[in-house]
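In this section we turn from sequence analysis to structure. A common task in structural bioinformatics is to predict how a protein folds when a small molecule is present, because the ligand can shape the pocket around it. The inputs are simple: the amino acid sequence and a SMILES string for the ligand, here nicotinamide-adenine-dinucleotide. Study the lines below before reading on.
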Amino acid sequence: MTMLDGQRALVTGAARGLGLAMSERFAAEGARVLIQDLDLAEAEKSAAALRAKGRDALAMGGSVTSESDMRACFARLDREWGGLDILVNNAGVSANKSALDLPLVDWSRVMDVNLNAPFMWAKEAGKRFVAQKSGNLVNICSIWGIDAAPDRIAYCVSKAALIQMTKCLANEWAGSNVRVNGIAPGYTETKMLREVIDAGRVDVQSLHRRTPMGRLGTPEEIADMALYIVSPGASFLTGQVIAVDGGWTAYGFY
Ligand SMILES: NC(=O)c1ccc[n+]([C@@H]2O[C@H](COP(=O)([O-])OP(=O)(O)OC[C@H]3O[C@@H](n4cnc5c(N)ncnc54)[C@H](O)[C@@H]3O)[C@@H](O)[C@H]2O)c1
């Protein structure tokens, strides 16, 4: 028996990065996984790679901000797997500009993807979870929803609100045995972050210095926490947002 035998999971923004690492981890523990992403071709490739390992995986394209794309995704889940047990709201975007330079349209795009979409997907999953009296929602937040930083105000505000949404939904659904938790990753070495570092746009040495553990996180470390959160071992855990950040948010010294 693996930990997630028979569970049906949907991870948004999962063609690559943290979403893919969580999908792979869930699948390795026996879950069926639907990989949702804006980039359908990449999502298909990632799902095919899981199927090649003998896992059960589907791919769906579309934006998390589109209600019709979301409905198509849930319709497929209902049709093929008869419902859902785990939703990970993972898709997220940033806009790295100072507040005075940030057009409202960029602010709204970040809010749409990082906050409004997770609410819309949570509601659709929550209806099913509450009716079946079981389910796990995991919201991927950020250390920037806990600490504040210059030049990423929309990202920080959206993730802070997502942390509060996690607690609100946990309160509403706890009585139906539905757990709602979040992960606040610190800087995690995805392919994307590596490209930004290699292009010289992020100084990796200063990230290492600022992190008590002296290094970046790995996608697998985020996936391990996601697996723990949705596992039976965490059956009394709800309303929590766990920072997986090498000590970043615990550090207040100079
Ligand atoms: N990597 C980090 O260091 C880090 C740190 C803290 C929080 N996070 C959060 O983790 C999550 C995943 O980050 P990542 O680093 O893996 O990002 P990433 O950019 O590598 O991957 C994000 C995926 O989301 C997809 N996506 C983007 N917009 C979408 C949309 N509108 N609809 C559907 N899919 C969409 C992209 O195509 C991509 O495949 C995000 O919410 C991010 O804010 C990441």
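The two ends are 48 Å apart (CA to CA). As an exercise, try to locate the residues that line the nicotinamide-adenine-dinucleotide site and compare them with your own expectations.
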